[in-house]
């Protein structure tokens, strides 16, 4: 069996993959990147497109993705200010991975049991008010 953990030159591939996973970890990062791979979005558009995400969490995830060079943020000097978010060339390199995930989902997605709806204060408030 071939060892894929260590590479010539002393690189520990397990540690390198942990770094890669850390870039993409977070409940919303992959969804944000998938949306931005489709087109440029504004903050409000992203918030509406991702049910359950809070403004604080979206801001946090966008900042992390920008700091890691996976998305870009462009501020336009307008009144009111306009901010666009786009995927970067670096993140476009993940395209084959996203395509593989799409193909996997098309093949196996129907066999995955859906998880229960949202949890937390907002979900509780909706259920108490009779909303689904």
From TrEMBL:
Enumerate the GO terms in the molecular function aspect: DNA binding
Name of this protein: Putative transcriptional regulator
Q: Which domain of life is it from?
A: Bacteria
Keyword rRNA-binding carried by entry: no
From the UniProt annotation, give the residues forming the signal peptide.
none
Among the Pfam families in the record, one is HxlR
UniProt entry keywords in alphabetical sequence: DNA-binding, Transcription, Transcription regulation
Q: Which residues form a coiled coil?
A: none
Name one process (GO BP) from the record.
regulation of DNA-templated transcription
Q: Which InterPro entries match?
A: ArsR-like_HTH, HTH_HxlR, WH-like_DNA-bd_sf, WH_DNA-bd_sf
Where in the numbering of this chain does the HTH hxlR-type domain appear?
A: 15-113
Annotated Gene3D superfamilies: Winged helix-like DNA-binding domain superfamily/Winged helix DNA-binding domain
């Amino acid at each position: 069996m071939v060892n894929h953990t260590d590479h010539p030159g002393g690189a520990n591939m397990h540690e390198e993959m942990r770094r890669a996973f850390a870039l993409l970890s977070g409940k919303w990062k992959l969804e944000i990147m998938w949306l931005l791979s489709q087109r440029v979005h504004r903050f409000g558009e992203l918030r509406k497109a991702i049910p359950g995400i809070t403004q604080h969490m979206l801001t946090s995830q966008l900042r992390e993705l920008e700091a890691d060079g996976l998305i870009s943020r462009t501020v336009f000097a307008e009144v009111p200010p306009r901010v666009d978010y786009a995927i970067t060339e670096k993140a476009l390199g993940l395209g084959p991975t996203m395509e593989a995930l799409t193909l996997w989902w098309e093949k196996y997605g129907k066999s995955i049991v859906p998880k229960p709806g949202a949890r937390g204060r907002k979900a509780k408030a909706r259920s108490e008010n009779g909303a689904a």
